[in-house]
Amino acid sequence: MVTSTRARFGEFVYKRRRLLNLTQDQVTAAGGPSDAAQTRAENGTGPDPSIETLRKLDVALRWAPGSAARTLDGGSPTPLEALDTDDRSLPSRPLSLGPSEIPLSLDTIIEVLGPHTRINKLSAAHPEVPGLAEAAADLSRVVSKITGAYVTRLLEVNGGPAGPRQPLVEFAFGHLLEEPSTVSDPHEREEALYRRFLYGREEGLDAATRERFWRRWEDTVRLKDTDHPERSGDTEVNA
After folding, report:
1. What integer pLDDT is reported at residue 97 of this predicted model?
2. How far is CA 59 from CA 20, 28, 112, in A?
3. Distance, C-alpha 181 to centroid of its chain
4. What's the pTM?
5. pLDDT at 92
6. If you average pLDDT over residues 70-84, what whole number do you get?
7. Predicted pLDDT at 90
8. What gap in Å lies between CA 214 and CA 198, rounded to an integer?
9. Helix, strand or coil, per DSSP, at residue 149
């Protein structure tokens, strides 16, 4: 069944292709999706286009990055010719105001996990000690942020959403890849969803969120690996 939203999206794709005087084969040759994926997109049939299909449509139809995802969600695309040259330039690196981030190696993370485990065991064994349970819970939240940052960086530098799935990652850090259904803090929820995206778990994400995460991954890898290639074994943790 063709929904009005999908039909609208398909009309934008079709009209843009015809405006550029391109056949579907030419769209594919220009970096676009396959003929079959284009037909589904233009006709509004099948499942929603994947984030990869949306990105390829942006490239081949000469739309600004994120245009196809925005259009699928009810917005409108931005043709590259409508932008100034400066607007199409790569994003600049944000101004750094002191050591808000520090490199943290896996050895250091493992070292932190040792006392964390012992404190949790002490808390469970001695509930009568005032404040111990609360302190253990606070420490667990901090450790979760640290290990979460490590896993995020690990997934970023190993191919991101298009990279191989390593069973060891899920075995060791599976709890950090779960659906954050009980997370109330907006920042922590965003980070948890981003990690799931990096591991290929995109279910529940709308097209705009997937596009935002994809852009974040590309920007992070480009900026960090270009500026600090020697840190590929470390993660950076906000101070």
Report:
1. 52
2. 13, 10, 44
3. 18
4. 0.51
5. 47
6. 82
7. 44
8. 9
9. helix
